[in-house]
């Protein structure tokens, strides 16, 4: 808040007001009696109670001072006494726990508001109020208050009615006995809930109106119509796990995990006024669900009911969520503007981006989401705008959402030993036709970092581990020269039915993939092509080990029955023809980095270029190391581990592309 500004002064005033109210109530409870000073005290008897816009409205009759000493049962209503409409805030109403026939003392500074076209005055500023209990019968009734579920009528006032808009839906303004909800939570029998579904009123089109009228407890008798802009999964909170029913569970991490999935299906929805909300639905049990829901639900209209507010978040507290919202702003079609007639031109430009968003979740036993899958795609829906990687790398903004279609060439798990394996990032090295056709200035392959919070389906994980795949990256984050898959990023093996290409070259690769050769611009944690001359061999690091020829397990044991054979625990079988893997470090002289020491870790079964050299070094004991020096090597596909300047050294590892 700006120092000395109106907002800061209002905040201080509210804090002093809350402190004064709390102190006054504490003093009344400590004294155990009604304050003796009756000057300026307004004494009323409640006749009727209802709720409107989270404010409790009590229709009361003012009592004379002589009636104040009587019990609520003995206080006779005089027809000549004026009728008042008393407003209580939610906090005051919860403190009073009042009901019809109760006598309330309202202490200054209460205020009376006289409306022009109304005969009943309105009493406001009723924070200093106290319910009178003067008889044993009243005290007994107060003790049994919690055992009763008193129904409070809720008057739902739409924004259209408030601003007197012309396209008014009359159904929203009808009050009926169905619009009553208990002021305390009820427990429903499962059998009863199926027989008696909650009655729903007419459909609204404003998320903010539902929040204001229904509050944080939940929407019980109303529903709101919205458009589903995005479907994705988020890691569920600790302790919230669902039971696995499918044979392909979703993983909250990019590592294959046999544990039950711990992710929740989420929707990013937008109403007719342009307001966004994130709806967190049930946990998923199958990996196929996310792609199915994306194809069936995105762009469709749906009705939300049985929701409750989980959190009201702001831009500063949820940068990832608002980066996705910003990619969908401004709306592609005119949206309604509160306070303006809908006959006037609705706005699409110069609209301020949303500064807050409500996180909604479902209530158990309520109607949740009703999607009309047969309906056409909404005009408000914004499909992901697909760009080529070349175009994305030239974006100058920070934390921009981007979608692209790319070929995955290589994947690598970040080996940070201090971080648990299920929380490590994974690097996917990708390319497309826009990068492969570039001559200079832009790399031919880029790294996409997949964080542990990005939910990958088992289908995607299995496909990437088997072969090179074309993957659709939806709503990845671009910023500071990196492409990152974070929360709310979705990876799909099929291109969505609805996407905007925006003139990008999305043709598939036809020829062999080319990598950038190692040079002065090469960075760590990248892949490159390497050629050079062998100038040294690190014999101390050379070793070999047997692996299973079926699953590749490198931790074989001696067979218990026959100590001369090897046994694989993963296959539970004897390995008769193991595959021998060999590792060796060689030093190369590269013309592109003549001033650097280039150290490469090579593998026997991978490297066809160094196959003869490794065989000579590891098997022929009489072969001199000097005989392999000066041999030409290349082109090798390598992963760059590190680049240091003191000493000037480049550490690489030979890899095999998918």
From TrEMBL:
InterPro entries xref list: DNA_repair-scaffolding, DUF4502, DUF4503
Domain (DUF4503): residue spans on this chain: 270-657
UniProt domain DUF4502: residue ranges: 1-113
Annotated segments matching region Disordered: 174-199
Gene Ontology cellular-component annotations: nuclear chromosome; nucleoplasm
GO aspect biological process, one term: double-strand break repair via homologous recombination
Pfam family, any one: DUF4503
Protein name according to UniProt: SPIDR protein
């Amino acid at each position: 808040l700006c120092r000395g500004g109106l907002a800061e002064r209002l905040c201080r005033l509210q804090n002093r007001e809350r402190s004064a109210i709390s102190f006054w109530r504490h003093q009344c409870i400590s004294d155990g009696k009604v304050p003796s000073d009756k000057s300026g005290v307004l004494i009323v008897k409640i006749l009727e109670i209802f709720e409107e816009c989270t404010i409790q409205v009590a229709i009361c009759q003012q009592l004379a001072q002589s009636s104040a000493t009587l019990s609520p049962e003995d206080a006779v209503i005089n027809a000549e006494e004026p009728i008042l409409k008393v407003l209580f805030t939610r906090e005051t109403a919860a403190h009073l726990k009042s009901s019809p026939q109760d006598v309330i003392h309202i202490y200054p500074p209460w205020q009376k508001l006289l409306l022009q076209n109304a005969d009943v005055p309105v009493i406001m500023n009723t924070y200093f109020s106290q319910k009178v209990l003067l008889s044993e019968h009243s005290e007994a009734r107060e003790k049994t208050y919690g055992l009763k579920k008193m129904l409070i009528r809720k008057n739902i006032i739409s924004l259209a009615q408030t601003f007197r808009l012309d396209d008014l839906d009359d159904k929203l303004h009808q009050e009926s006995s169905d619009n009553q909800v208990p002021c305390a939570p009820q427990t429903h029998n499962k059998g009863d809930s199926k027989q008696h579904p909650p009655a729903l009123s007419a459909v609204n089109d404003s998320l903010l109106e539902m929040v204001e009228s229904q509050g944080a407890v939940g929407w019980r008798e109303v529903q709101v119509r919205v458009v589903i802009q995005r479907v994705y999964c988020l890691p569920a909170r600790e302790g919230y796990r669902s039971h696995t029913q499918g044979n392909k569970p979703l993983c909250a991490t990019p590592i294959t995990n046999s544990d039950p999935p711990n992710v929740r299906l989420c929707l990013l929805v937008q109403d007719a006024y342009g307001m966004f909300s994130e709806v967190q639905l049930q946990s998923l049990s199958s990996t196929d669900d996310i792609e199915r829901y994306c194809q069936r639900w995105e762009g469709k209209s749906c009705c939300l009911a049985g929701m409750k507010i989980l959190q009201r978040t702001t831009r500063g507290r949820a940068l990832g969520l608002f980066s996705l919202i910003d990619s969908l702003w401004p709306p592609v079609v005119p949206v309604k503007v509160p306070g303006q007639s809908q006959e006037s031109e609705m706005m699409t430009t110069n609209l301020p981006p949303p500064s807050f968003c409500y996180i909604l979740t479902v209530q158990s036993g309520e109607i949740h989401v009703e999607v009309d899958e047969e309906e056409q795609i909404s005009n408000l829906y914004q499909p992901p705008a697909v760009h080529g990687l070349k175009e994305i790398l030239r974006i100058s903004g920070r934390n921009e959402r981007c979608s692209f279609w790319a070929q995955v060439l290589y994947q690598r798990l970040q080996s940070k030993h201090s971080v648990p394996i299920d929380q490590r990032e994974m690097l996917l090295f990708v390319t497309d036709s826009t990068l492969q056709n570039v001559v200079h200035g832009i790399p031919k392959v880029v790294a996409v970092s997949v964080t542990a919070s990005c939910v990958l389906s088992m289908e995607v994980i299995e496909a990437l581990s088997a072969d090179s795949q074309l993957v659709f990256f939806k709503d990845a984050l671009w910023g500071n020269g990196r492409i990152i898959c974070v929360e709310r990023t979705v990876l799909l093996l099929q291109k969505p039915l609805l996407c905007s290409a925006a003139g990008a070259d999305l043709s598939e690769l036809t020829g062999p993939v080319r990598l950038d050769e190692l040079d002065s611009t090469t960075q760590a944690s990248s892949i490159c092509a390497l050629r050079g001359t062998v100038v040294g061999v690190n014999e101390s690091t050379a070793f070999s080990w047997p692996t299973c020829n079926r699953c590749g397990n490198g931790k074989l044991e001696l067979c218990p029955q026959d100590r001369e054979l090897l046994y694989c625990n993963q296959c539970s079988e004897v390995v008769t023809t193991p595959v021998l893997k060999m590792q060796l470090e060689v030093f190369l002289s590269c013309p592109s980095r003549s001033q650097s020491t280039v150290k490469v870790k090579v593998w026997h079964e991978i490297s066809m270029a160094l196959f003869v050299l490794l065989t000579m070094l590891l098997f022929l004991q009489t072969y001199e190391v000097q005989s392999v020096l000066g041999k030409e090597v290349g082109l090798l596909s390598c992963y760059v581990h590190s680049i240091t300047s003191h000493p000037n050294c480049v550490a690489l590892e030979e890899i095999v592309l998918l």
